[in-house]
Specification:
The protein is an alpha+beta fold. It has helices spanning about 5-20, 65-70, 125-135, 190-200, 240-250, 260-270, 320-325, and strands spanning about 5, 30-35, 40-45, 45-50, 60-65, 80-85, 85-90, 95-100, 115-120, 150-155, 155-165, 165-175, 180-185, 205-210, 215-220, 225-230, 255, 280-285, 285-295, 295-305, 315, 335, 345-350, 350-355. The strands form four sheets. An eight-stranded antiparallel β-sheet has the order 5-2-3-4-16-15-14-9. The chain has an eight-stranded antiparallel β-sheet with strand order 13-10-11-12-24-23-22-17, sandwiched between helices. The longest helix has 15 residues, at about 5-20.
C-alpha cells in the first residue's frame, strides 16, 4: 500500500465512478469521489461503488471531473498529499497540482444492514445476460418497476428480465449452486454498471447479497463493491407473458442467422420515419422486410432463411428487433415465431428470448 495510485487502477476507478455519478443532478458533494482506505468511493442516485486501489495515503475528497482531466493528461502514478484545505497531486516526472477540497466529514455515510447471501454467479454469464435484457428496460415513470432489471433465482436457474410494456427480453442460465428462491429488482443504471464490470471480469465471480432493500454486489478479486437501492413496485408477470405467447404459437418457426436478420432490419429501417416507425416482415422461405413512408420512400430487403416459417405478415419496430439481435452472437441461428399481426412475435436464441408486440395496422 502507498500514498500514490497506479494510473491504470485510477483510470478504471474513475470510469466506474463516472457511471455512478452521472445521474439526475447530483449534489455538489457527490460530484467528488472519496479516496480512502485503499479504495475510491463514488455515490449517485440510489447507488454507491467502492473500487479497490493500492493506496494508503490520507483520506481526501476530490472533484471527479478534475481528476479525470488530470489523469487524461498524465502517464504515471499520481501521488496524493493533504495540506489543510488543499490536496497536492504530483507525478514522478515533476508535474503537480493543488486542488481545493471539501472536508471528508461532509461525505454522506451509509450504514448497511446485515447481509444475506443470495448467490455466487460467474461474471461472464451474468454480464452477458444483463447485456441481453437492458435494451428492453422501460423509460416510463408510471411504474417504477419497469425502470429496472429483474434478477430471479429459482431452483438453480437465473432469469434476467426487462420490459417496457411493448417488448420483453429474458435471458436464462443455470448455476451450480443451491440457493433459496429470490428476486432482486436492480435499477437500470446499477444493472448497466454491473454488466460493464462483469464483462471485463471474465472468469471471476460475482457475489450477490441482500441487505434489507439494498443489493450488495461484489465483482472480482479484489472486489469492486456496488450498493444499489432496489426498486419498489410490482414487476409484470413475465412468466405469464411467456406462457401466453407460447400458447399462441401454432406454426414452425423461421430460423435465420442473427447477424443477417439484424442487418436486414437496419437496412429496411432506412426508409421509416418518426410517424411510420415500422417494417412489414414475412418470415417464409426467404425473409422479406419492407418499409415505406411519405417522407423517406420505400425499402425492400431479402434475407436468407435457414428454415422457412409461415406466410403471415407482421409489422414490427425494427429497432426493437435489432436491439435484441445485436446481443446474439452473429452466426448463431435465431428462431422467429409468428402467429399473426395481432399477436406477439418471439425471437429466440440459445439462451435468451425477446417477446415483441406488433405495431399493428395495415401490412
Amino acid at each position: 500500500m502507498r500514498n500514490s495510485i497506479d494510473r491504470v487502477l485510477l483510470v478504471n476507478a474513475l470510469g466506474i465512478a463516472r457511471k455512478v455519478v452521472s445521474g439526475r443532478g447530483p449534489s455538489e458533494i457527490l460530484k467528488n469521489v472519496l479516496i480512502a482506505n485503499g479504495k475510491i468511493e463514488a455515490q449517485g442516485d440510489g447507488i454507491r461503488a467502492n473500487v479497490p486501489v493500492d493506496y494508503a495515503g490520507p483520506s481526501v475528497l476530490l472533484p471527479l471531473a478534475k481528476l479525470e482531466t488530470i489523469t487524461g493528461a498524465t502517464r504515471g502514478a499520481l501521488s496524493v498529499m493533504a495540506d489543510g484545505n488543499a490536496v497536492k497531486l504530483s507525478t514522478e516526472d515533476g508535474s503537480a497540482w493543488e486542488l481545493q477540497t471539501v472536508d471528508v466529514a461532509q461525505w454522506p455515510a451509509h450504514e448497511v444492514a446485515a447481509r444475506a447471501a443470495v448467490a455466487t454467479i460467474p461474471a461472464e454469464q451474468l454480464g452477458r445476460a444483463l447485456r441481453t435484457v437492458l435494451a428492453a428496460v422501460g423509460r416510463t415513470e408510471s411504474n417504477a418497476a419497469l425502470g429496472g432489471v429483474l434478477i430471479e433465482l429459482k431452483e438453480g436457474v437465473v432469469n434476467c428480465v426487462a420490459t417496457d410494456g411493448r417488448r420483453m427480453h429474458v435471458s436464462t442460465f443455470e448455476i451450480e449452486q443451491a440457493t433459496d428462491d429470490c428476486e432482486i429488482l436492480l435499477p437500470a443504471n446499477a444493472a448497466a454498471l454491473v454488466m460493464g464490470i462483469a464483462n471485463k471480469a471474465g472468469d471471476e465471480k460475482v457475489q450477490i447479497d441482500r441487505a434489507n432493500n439494498c443489493a450488495v454486489i461484489e465483482i472480482g478479486e479484489p472486489a469492486v463493491v456496488i450498493y444499489a437501492q432496489m426498486l419498489t413496485g410490482k414487476f409484470p408477470n413475465w412468466r405469464g407473458v411467456v406462457e401466453k405467447t407460447e400458447e399462441q404459437i401454432t406454426a414452425e418457426p423461421a430460423v435465420v442467422r442473427a447477424d443477417r436478420l439484424r442487418d436486414g432490419m437496419k437496412q429496411a429501417a432506412i426508409c421509416t420515419s418518426e410517424t411510420s416507425l415500422a417494417v412489414a416482415c414475412k418470415f417464409a422461405a426467404s425473409v422479406v422486410i419492407r418499409s415505406k413512408s411519405a417522407e423517406n420512400g420505400k425499402s425492400r430487403v431479402t434475407v436468407e432463411a435457414q428454415q422457412a416459417g409461415g406466410e403471415e405478415i407482421v409489422k414490427l419496430n425494427p429497432q426493437f428487433c435489432a436491439d435484441f439481435l445485436r446481443t446474439v452472437d452473429g452466426m448463431e441461428p435465431v428462431k422467429v415465431y409468428v402467429k399473426d399481426n395481432e399477436s406477439a412475435v418471439i425471437l429466440e436464441s440459445e439462451d435468451a428470448r425477446a417477446v415483441i408486440m406488433p405495431v399493428g395496422g395495415d401490412v
